[in-house]
Amino acid sequence: MSFKTQNPATGEILEHYSSLSSEEIEHALALGADAVPIWSNTPINSRCTRVERLAEILRVRKDELAGLITLEMGKLFSEAQGEIEKCAAACDYYAENGEAQLEDEMIESDASRSLITYQPLGTILAVMPWNFPFWQLIRAAVPALIAGNTVVMKHASNVPQCALAIDAIFREAGFAEGIFVNLMIESSQVEAVIRDPRIHGVTLTGSGPAGRSVAATAGSVLKKSLLELGGSDPFIVLEDADIELAVQHATMGRFLNCGQSCIAAKRFIVVEAIADQFIDQFKAVVGALQAGDPLDSTTTLAPMAREDLRDELHQQVESSVALGAKIVTGGEIIERSGYYYAATIIDHVSVGQPAWSEELFGPVASIIRVKDEREAVAVANESEFGLGGVIFSGDSERGERLARQLESGAAFVNGMVKSDPRLPFGGIKQSGYGRELSYLGIREFVNIKTLWIR
Ligand code: NAP
């Protein structure tokens, strides 16, 4: 099979690449394994220096790399530039803090000296999605590399040029062959790679079905797995909320990256008393989003990444409407070349509709009306997902009390959910397990080893 670069803004196929043969996979895995003893014995400050260099390269080549993201998955160019800057900032964070986060920890016990030490596991496979093609990889790979592991990347098949560019910048930053390996393979080839004895752990960011498949294989050979999966984050607006602020964050939180973000606000759970006011203001802003060329700085609505994903989203909207949801704005495929979908709000979303229970991965905001805070939290938690959640309230103590009740890996009060290298990121329930970012993320793919010495 071949991978292709297809411009989502036009539908044009630009490049084809072939997936690796079994001999080429064998060679790549051998490179990764051979690099383990060299890299794990490289002093951690030298590993951090290379990550610093990676940050510099990302900054210098920001526009070129951002252009590739826009070309392959359609993100607005300004957002793609932001993605590259965010990658550089995460590199800075781990280059500055990684060594301290992995320092030995002395623990008092009956030994003369006892301590916890963090040692690398070996080679980690990173299976990555297309929606933030640089960011997802950087946040998974950089901490694992600083910890002394080597990393083998299987990127999503619709972003092969991003994958090649990522591989090239690691090389340019001084990561010798084998420390970071780009494995251009299909998803059907992943299972054999996980089973290979030279792979010691796997991290996947992607959909539930992919996560379940990878975790089942990893479990069958008892290898550590980390899963960052989908979400259907609630965004609760209470009657005492600052509506203008809520609308501003609702718009960013739902329509950034054309709605194709795991932590996008997806279910807007609004208290009935202010629902009409919130919807009117939200509609005014969302209805004004302008579809266009993602490279054009005046465009505010990008295309979706792929035709099949756009069509699936439209199906979910149409089924929800057939089951009682009402379109406030949008709800249709935009008639132009490329994979555009109108910025959409649907109201009266209720039990039984896809918009209630499924992840809508695109520019569609679902409104669920509730009578009070109690019902709002109950509805928020009535989801198989548990990634993030938001509460908007004029009373931040009330917001915090309710945020603690959300079944999610993160809960934000009066702000949209976002990732930050200083704070852990991850989900519960069907949104996955394990944490990326912060000091917790760098300790996922390590042997937390006890030393007891008399
Ligand atoms: P996807 O279809 O699951 O693909 C993700 C990666 O997994 C790709 O590299 C894909 O390869 C691979 N893959 C797919 N099926 C596989 C299988 N059975 N075995 C092994 N690998 C497999 O997801 P996506 O459409 O790219 O991304 C969208 C989903 O990711 C959404 O649900 C979103 O919420 C979630 N996501 C979660 C987070 C998070 O941090 N929690 C972040 C971003 C996205 P191919 O491309 O070759 O199929």
Write up this protein.
With 454 residues, the protein is α/β, with parallel strands linked by helices. The protein has two domains: 251 residues, Aldehyde Dehydrogenase, Chain A, domain 1 (3-Layer(aba) Sandwich), CATH 3.40.605.10; 188 residues, Aldehyde Dehydrogenase, Chain A, domain 2, CATH 3.40.309. The chain has 15 helices and 20 strands. α12 links the parallel β13 and β14. The longest helix has 25 residues. The N and C termini lie far apart (58 Å). The site of NADP nicotinamide-adenine-dinucleotide phosphate has 31 residues, from β8 and α8.
Uncertain spans, ≥5 residues at pLDDT below 50? Answer: none
Instruction: Give the helix/strand class.
Output: alpha/beta
What do we call the CATH homologous superfamily of the largest domain?
A: Aldehyde Dehydrogenase, Chain A, domain 1
Seen as an oligomer or otherwise, the chain set is single chain
- The largest beta-sheet arranges its strands as 12-13-14-11-10-16-17
> The CATH topology of the largest domain, please?
Aldehyde Dehydrogenase, Chain A, domain 1
| Most strands sheet | 7 strands, mixed
Average pLDDT over all residues: 98
Write a compact overview of the structure shown.
The protein is an alpha/beta fold and 454 residues long. It is built from 15 helices and 20 strands. The chain folds into two domains: 2-229 and 431-453, Aldehyde Dehydrogenase, Chain A, domain 1, CATH 3.40.605.10; 233-420, Aldehyde Dehydrogenase, Chain A, domain 2 (3-Layer(aba) Sandwich).
